[in-house]
Every structure is written in structure tokens, then in C-alpha cells.
Amino acid sequence: MGLKEYAVRRGLQTIATFFILITVGFFLFRVMPGDPTAILLLNPRIPPETRQLLRQQLGLDKPLWLQYFYYIKNFFLGEFGYSFHTGKPVVEMIFGYRLINTLILVGTSVVLAIAIGIALGALAALRRGTKVDVALLTFS
């Protein structure tokens, strides 16, 4: 098998895996007991009409296959709706200050992991065949 075939096969596997993960994410919330709006509307003074209106706004009154279609469509369009907590668009929250904090944490972790990995790899190479080498190999 050539490099081109390998790249195509790996690309198709990646797309399939991504699609499966998106599908599992959708159905995971649908098989949980209760209505997704139930937690939002725990207040017993909220009338049933308001509950029904929220279900319509969220598209929960539509058939499951149509909900799934809209979920996939909105996912690929980057339309993740609005936060129930803040009322702001979710995309704005993801790419706002939260992304910066995440990148700082991930960047620091990667730099530390590389530095520690190189140091321990060099130590294992210097102590080849000793208990230190075996211990590092075992725990890595």
C-alpha cells in the first residue's frame, strides 16, 4: 500500500471516528431519563405553557431524526446556541477568554511534558540496562 492510499484510509477513518463521536454525544443526552428542560424549569410556579414554549424553542418537540439532523447541521455551521447561564452565544464563550486560559494550560503542560520526557529519556539512555532504565521503561 502506498502513501496515498494510507493517507486516504486514515482520513476516512478519522472522519468516521469524528462522526461516531458526534452521534454518541447527541444520543447520550437523549437516552438520559427526564426532559432536558426539566432541570431548567424546576420552579413549580412556571406554567406548563412556558415549559412547552421552551421545548419548541429548543426543538425538543420535533422527531428525533430531525433533532439529529439539526444537531449535525448546527455543529458544522458552528451554531452552538446560547448559554442558559449567561445568555451569550456559546461560540463567543468558547473563543473568548476561556480559550486563552485553555491554551495557557495546554501550552504549559506540553512544554513540561516534553522537558520531563527528554530528561527521563536521556537518563534511561545513560543508565541503559540498569534498574533505573527498567523502572523508567516500566512507568512510561
Taking Cα atoms only, what radius of gyration do you get, to the nearest Å? 24 Å
Class based on secondary structure composition and strand pairing? mainly alpha
Mean pLDDT: 87
- Write the H/E string, N to C: HHHHHHH
Low-confidence stretches: none
Largest sheet: none
Helix share bin: over 70%
**Counted beta strands:** 0
Global morphology: elongated
The first-to-last residue Cα distance is 32 Å
Annotation field: number of helices: 7
Concise overview:
This protein has helices spanning 3-31, 36-40, 48-58, 64-77, 90-94, 97-126, 131-139.
Plain-language structure description:
- This protein is mainly alpha-helical.
- The chain has a domain at 96-140.
- It is built from 7 helices and no strands.
- Helix 6 runs antiparallel to helix 7 (131-139).
- The longest helix has 30 residues, at 97-126.
- The radius of gyration is 24 Å and the shape is elongated.
- The two termini are 32 Å apart.
